[in-house]
């Protein structure tokens, strides 16, 4: 029976679809294409263009395809935008997730994977950040995701749904075979922005502050390869299928790279220099965000394949060059 992948025409969702297909599973993609791209959906997966909050559409998909599990990636993901448009984020991320959870339970779907985020922790002094750290999101984006985790936990207790909420740290890179990658025209991720600057799509790269209490003054983040993130979802799906209890887990490598280290890695991998401008800090940027990463390996048996910054930026650069020549 197939897995329903909401947001499967987007960056991370499309990589999970590839991971499913690569091991012989079937996938149905539900995406409204407002942020996703039809070209990122493999031909072997059925694409349904529609809204994840449309319960009538969901009921039809569940009935026609006998969906066995849901992987929920569809969301709005820009914290700064969420500050300007909080109600939009609560509708898109929280209310529509509620509709999906309800439809899944009504259809008798037993397993749900949820694309959560390290933003649920907010600004914390803990380094690395364990799963039990206080949840104090500083943006409506983080709050909207935390609300979904709460709904899932309550639904699991009341209705027997079992879920895995996977809290991403900084996802980067692209499929090594270049079948998918980050295609957004308004991305805010550092590796993507640096790759765009390499190919001349951007005139310069802006570093938001170098006066943080870190070794080189720039923010430190846990960069994790998108294909490893997809593999973590496969491991979570297998865990639930084998009777595992509902769980919330970090996806990260457990170590970080600074903004300036990432820029140096991109320059080295591309063999090109590019303009970098130092700008002011952005509100709400913690100095360090690094995952406590042992639990996901212990619980799910997840073994990352691409835990290497040079590899991550190399795949991102290759994808960006492919987009430039498409």
Summary of the model, kept short:
With 326 residues, the protein is of the alpha/beta class. It has helices at residues 11-22, 55-65, 79-84, 86-106, 140-159, 190-198, 226-241, 259-270, 294-300, 309-324, and strands spanning 3-6, 27-31, 46-49, 69-72, 111-117, 162-168, 170-172, 205-208, 220-221, 223-225, 247-251, 257-258, 276-279, 288-289.
Descriptive report:
40% of the residues lie in helices and 17% in strands. The two termini are 35 Å apart. By secondary structure, it is of the alpha/beta class. The protein is built from ten helices and 14 strands. The longest helix has 21 residues, at 86-106. It has two domains: 3-172 and 223-251, NAD(P)-binding Rossmann-like Domain (Rossmann fold), CATH 3.40.50.720; 190-221 and 254-324, UDP-galactose 4-epimerase, domain 1 (Alpha-Beta Complex). The model has no long low-confidence stretch (mean pLDDT 96).
